[in-house]
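Cross-check.
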Amino acid sequence: MTCRYCKADTVPVLDLGFSPPSNQYIQKVKDIEYYYPLKLNWCINCNLLQTSADIDSQLLFDDDYSYFSSYSSSWIAHCERLVDDIQDNYKCDNVVEVASNDGYLLEILKNRNIEAYGIEPTKSTAAVAIEKNLNVVNDFLTFNLAKKLVDERGKVDVLIANNVLAHVPDLKDFIKSICTLLDKDGFAIIEFPYAKNLAENNQFDTIYHEHYSYFTLSTVKLLFNENGLEVVDVKNIETHGGSLRIYSQRMDNNRIVSSRVSEMLTHEIQTKINSVGYFLGMQKTALETKIKLLQFLLDCKLRNKKVIAYGAAAKGNTLLNYCGIKKDLIEFVVDKNPYKVGKLLPGSQIPIKNDSEIKVSRPEYILILPWNLMDEIIKQLDYAKEWGAKFVIAIPSLTIK
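Predicted model, tokenized:
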């Protein structure tokens, strides 16, 4: 394939086979599912990591999109701290959140009397936010929409975009849209999973079709510079297994760039993260994970030990489909999100049940699929220790707690 951003040649670094989109949960076994290749490629020019399948974003982020951010207490706490940072350090008379989902962050801003609106393409999540009387534009952010919003609402002091950059097929248009929305002295605060952790910590399950791209700071800086923005600060944060939060401003601003930016860029050069060799070992570690997880589940089956999963997460669907795991090895998965309960996981077709089923089923093992929320989930399910249940994590390596 050629690079989705710069059209240069790419090199394949990881092949996870074929699977349906990870957030397209199905209603019943007879539902038709469409499978697409799930491969990761590296661009020889701009070093952008990207999935190979060119799936229309309208298909991936459809009216029944089932990812709702509000169901993670640790994520909400993270966003509270983010708003603390914004209030302490930036003018925030007018704020916009791109990919505002179900209004989890808009609600925090509203409670602090900060004027804000969201841009959210999925109807299911936008409807929940609108029901809370939050201001939401139900559309994909494009350059044309950005110009229209500036005409109608003016430019913004702060633009927040959490975990959306990876979901964008047309990065040039998206970055130009951010630049258009920002006031001259405004800041764009953007979080995304760091490609360094993807490779070093065997996080191959975070690869799914919704994630068109995976970023290093070097690549983000290049892309932003070419489209009117400068990265002026960067921080490592713990969310989603290790992410970067960047602060950027328009190029026509008299900006001061933090030393943290140059320090991280230097570190990326030293670790050779912008070379294809840095990512080529991912295939081997993914296969090792697959073998160990299957061995564990087959052993449980032979010993008549019941295994269920917790969290109908997109990353879990990548793991299950790559490993070829079905409901004969994992009876069901539980989830707190009522929009997922009663459906089946895409591909594996494992049924999704309410988390109250854990006490009824009393499994010996609970496989935690959203491993980035492991501490939150284990604390929540502490009651399962009453009958000796153990928790299992597959990523980065098979661990039983």
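The CA atoms of residues 103 and 109 lie 10 Å apart. The first strand starts at residue 10 and ends at 19. Passed to J.P. for a second look.
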